[in-house]
Design a protein that fits this description.
1 helix; 5-stranded antiparallel sheet; mainly beta
Length: 428
């Protein structure tokens, strides 16, 4: 069985055309034409409501999904399961869920196998890879592998070195190169950690071989005032030459570990870091505190979001050219009551340049429930789903993925029929 993962649309650009036909058929009006934001009719299908089983044995509070070529979805949950510490699950296209692994099955209260899991990757042999926010040998998170038969192996437990020099609290997702090496970041730890606790330090970017050997490629806050960034967030992206790109929530010029507006950075194969954008600086003035990583197009442009800053202080979608020039594609909270969203998360991009992502909040009657949006290459935003409404149940969406038929998939942390969150599909 071909288990190649499909996490975004490649070479398909019919979503907006299909939506245009539907809008014409339904005679839906554009909202706030002056602002460039609109609302579109999409159909949400709830594929699974978590907490359907006693004591949430099927999991609760899911953390996002990945998809294989046969349409099966895989994800982790931060709670629920046999031990209340989360599961890894598989969801077939018909909606039937199977729990593949219950975390905290090892190590008693310490949960040496980890807990609060996310799933990042699926290889050609059906093995899953991901991180846990807690647990592991030192209870500050781990990287794990799960075979298709349900056997889990902890590849690395963080804080294995003095003062958590190898990092602590892994965040974002994992990526994998052609040699089966894994790359990721931790929110804390690293050379800047002073040993005062697991939340000390500004984080690291690490490489993990297939055998589990970890190498720290970059220690954040290596420069004065954390000019190289602090507290990395979001999933990395890898280019054809082996360079890694990512974001930090804090740091930047005159930043410090817990201050500053964050940066976009590049780390080459030797581990040398280059700051491509320091938010709030003269060269990159718009937006602040990116928290979702970046995506890369074929021309070397990077796209991402910031959770703050912009014209209304509620975040932006930005484009960063190879020259370092920043362009704001959209300012959130351009509509009354932030009906177009605020504090956006990570984005994905299709071959026609359309971006898709999630944001918090929404119309006044649904505060904090979140939404899914599409942003065209020209910067026009369309709200596809406002959560908490009758037509779009669920609360607090995570990132979305896109298939070749223009369907979006994702999870919400809470809400749904049983309150444990949902897996959803949005059909154009």
């Amino acid at each position: 069985m071909n288990m190649a993962i499909e996490t975004r649309k490649i070479g398909v650009g019919s979503r907006q055309r299909a939506r245009g036909l539907r809008l014409g058929e339904l005679a839906l009006a554009c909202l706030a034409a002056v602002s460039g934001a609109a609302s579109a009719q999409t159909t949400e299908v709830v594929l699974h409501n978590f907490c359907l089983l006693t004591n949430c044995a099927d999991g609760a509070q899911p953390s996002g999904v990945i998809r294989d070529s046969e349409g099966n979805l895989y994800g982790g949950t931060t709670a629920g399961g046999a031990h209340g510490k989360g599961v890894v699950y598989k969801l077939v296209p018909s909606g039937q869920e199977t729990v593949l692994y219950n975390f905290c099955s090892q190590g008693g209260d310490l949960c040496t196998d980890g807990w609060a899991a996310s799933v990042s990757l699926l290889d050609s042999e059906g093995n899953l890879y991901g991180t846990t926010g807690f647990g592991g040998a030192h209870n500050v998170g781990a990287v794990y592998e799960l075979t298709d038969s349900g056997n889990e192996t902890v590849l690395h437990s963080f804080c294995s070195l003095t003062n958590c020099a190898d990092g602590s609290a892994p965040g974002g997702g994992l990526i994998r190169d052609s040699d089966a090496n894994l790359y990721g970041t931790t929110l804390y730890g690293g050379a800047s950690s002073n040993g005062s606790g697991v939340t000390s330090g500004a984080g690291v970017l690490y490489k993990l071989t297939a055998s589990g050997e970890e190498t720290v490629l970059h220690n954040f806050c290596s420069l004065a005032d954390c000019a190289d960034g602090a507290l990395p967030s979001g999933t990395l992206v890898l280019d054809s030459e082996g360079n890694l790109y990512g974001t930090t929530t804090d740091g930047g010029p005159n930043g410090g570990v817990s201050f500053g507006s964050g940066v976009v950075y590049k780390v080459d194969t030797s581990g040398s870091e280059t700051v491509l954008c320091s938010f709030g600086s003269a060269s990159c003035p718009d937006g602040a505190n990116p928290n979702g990583g970046v995506v890369l197009d074929s021309e070397g442009n990077l796209y991402g979001t910031t959770s703050k800053g912009g014209a209304h202080g509620k975040g932006v979608v930005y484009k960063l050219a190879p020259s370092g020039e920043e362009t704001v594609l959209y300012n959130f909270c351009s509509l009354t009551n932030c009906a177009d969203g605020e504090n956006p998360g990570p984005v994905i991009r299709d071959s026609e340049g359309n971006l898709y992502g999630t944001a918090s909040n929404g119309p006044k009657q649904n505060p904090g429930n979140g939404l899914v949006y599409e942003l065209s290459a020209s910067g026009s935003e369309t709200v596809l789903c406002t959560f908490g409404s009758a037509s779009c149940p669920g609360v607090s969406p995570n990132a979305v993925i896109l298939d070749s038929e223009d369907n979006l998939y994702g999870t919400t942390l809470d809400g749904g029929a049983k309150g444990g969150g949902i897996v959803f599909k949005l059909e154009p």
